[in-house]
Structure formats: C-alpha cells, structure tokens
Amino acid sequence: MTAAPAQPRLPTYFIPHGGGPCFFMDWPGDPHMWDRMAAFLRGMAATVGQRPKAVLVISGHWEEAAFTVNAGERPPLLFDYYGFPPHTYELQYPAPGSPELARRVQALLGEAGIPCASDATRGLDHGVFVPFKLIYPDADVPIVQLSMKQGLDPRDHLAAGRALAPLRDEGVLIVGSGMSFHNMRGFAPAFKTASQRFDDWLAQTVELPRPQREQALEHWLDAPDARVVQPHPDHLLPLMVAAGAALDDAGKRVFQDEVMNVVVSGSRFG
Q1: How far apart are CA 269 and CA 208, in angstroms?
Q2: Tell me: the pLDDT tens digits for 65-102?
Q3: What gap in Å lies between CA 103 and CA 135, rounded to an integer?
Q4: Is the pTM value of this prediction over 0.90?
Q5: For a tag site, which of 145, 164, 229, 241 has the least CB within 10 Å?
Q6: Is residue 19 over pLDDT 90?
Q7: DSSP 81-130
C-alpha cells in the first residue's frame, strides 16, 4: 500500500481583529477606516496555502486562571462589545466546534506539564467571530478557542505555543487574534509615533531566529513605548502563542495600516 502523503505544515498567524464589530457597520467619521484590514482578513484564507481541518484561536478577550479550551460542539457567539448599532448584536457565525480538537489541545498541553481546563458552554467572543466572518465567511471550518492564562506571562504563552506546535502538522491553523496597539485611551494623533516605534520593534523581532525572538518577546516590556502601546497586554499575548507554535520557522510582518491615528499590524510564521 502506498503511504499517504505527509500533511503540509500550516503557518501560524497573529492578526488584528479591529474594534468591536467594525467591519459590519458604518464607522462614525470615516466609513473606510477598516477597509484595508478587512481586505487583509478576507485574503488570508488564500495565503494559508491549504484549507485547514480546523482552527485554534487565542483571542485577547478570554483570560482564565489556567489555559481553558472551548469544547462545545456548536459554540454560540458572545457579544462582548458595548454601545454599537443594534444590528451588530444579530450577527451570525455558526461555525462548528471540535470536541476532538479540544481534547487534543488538552492532551498536548498536559504532556508539556501545562494544566488546561475545558469549557463546553462559553461562546466565541468577538476576537474570534468578527475576523473569521471575513476569513472563512461560510462558517464551514471548525473553530476552537483557547483562553489566555491570567497573569499574562509571556513565557507561559510561548511555552503553550511550543506544546501546541504538533497541531500544525495535523491540519490545524493556529491564530492569535489581538491588536499590536491596544491602549483604549491612546487612539489619537499624539500616540502615532509611539505606535510606529513599537510596531517597528515588533516587525524586527518576529524576523529574528527562534532563540533571540523568544527572548525578545519574553522581555517585550523593554521595547520602545511598550507600556504606552500595551498598558494591559491582553491583545499582545496571543502573538506569544503563535510565535511559540512557530518553533524554528521564520516570522514576517504581513500587514500594516494606520487606523484611528495609530499603527497596527499582523504577522505570519512559516
């Protein structure tokens, strides 16, 4: 019998997910504010290289005492944004979950000595369903969400990514969903220079060889304007999981734009 061809290894991504349901409403002041980011997300499926069997997403909107994986078969949506037009609370994204993948995530993390709980009832938050309505609009690719670990220690999240790296050879796309700039008081012209300095550091960092890259990410607070750009790094830590899962694969900034007066970007590894 001829052996089946090896499963091509999938890349990992760190993507920006915008502001609330921004891609599905008329944004006040500038209706085209999010057009370039939306175009990047719509084009992402074609750049992956193959259709994944499932997607594992780490979003900047879920923290638990221990890493926790969404194990529901049909996860609902969690409308965890406030003050937006009524129709944005009626968005639908009926992507199936994957209890099988959730068990595999728990097993891999457990083998690495990293505790992982499961939650079969939590919905997909807007850091997941908003971008993925653009990436896989037919909602026909199973999606499993993994929480971050409270404390947001970059070492913990890099380690989790390394433990999950085998999924890339099993047809699972690993995506960190956040924002490279996330200071809710800082979306103003005065913060553009700080956002650019940090983003340039981030672009240079993801391109480093693995040991230097992981060391730099562990010490991200030493980056230019780090605390201005990420006062609470919940939207940066998903990058750590994607970078950890990259192992020795090179990273590269694959998207950059200016939105609401600041610079934001996305990266790919592999």
Answers
A1: 11
A2: 999 999 999 999 999 999 999 999 999 999 999 999 99
A3: 25
A4: yes
A5: 164
A6: yes
A7: --S--GGGGS--------HHHHHHHHHHHHHTT--EEEESSPPB-HHHHH
CA distances from 35 to 26, 89, 115, 212, 255 (A): 11, 21, 40, 34, 13
CA geometry: angle 66, 70, 72, nearest 5 deg: 150
CA torsion angle 247 16 167 221 (round to 10): 40
* CA-angle at 167, arms to 37 and 162, nearest 5°: 85
**Cα–Cα dist 148/218, whole Å:** 15
Question: What confidence tens digit (pLDDT) does each residue in 119-165 have?
Answer: 999 999 999 999 999 999 999 999 999 999 999 999 999 999 999 99
Give the β-pairing of 12-16 and 262-269. Answer: antiparallel
Backbone φ, ψ for residue 251 (5° rounding): -110, 160
Q: What domains sit in the chain, N to C, each tagged with a CATH number?
A: 12-269 (3.40.830.10)
Integer angstrom CA distances of residue 41 from 53, 139, 232, 270: 19, 14, 25, 18
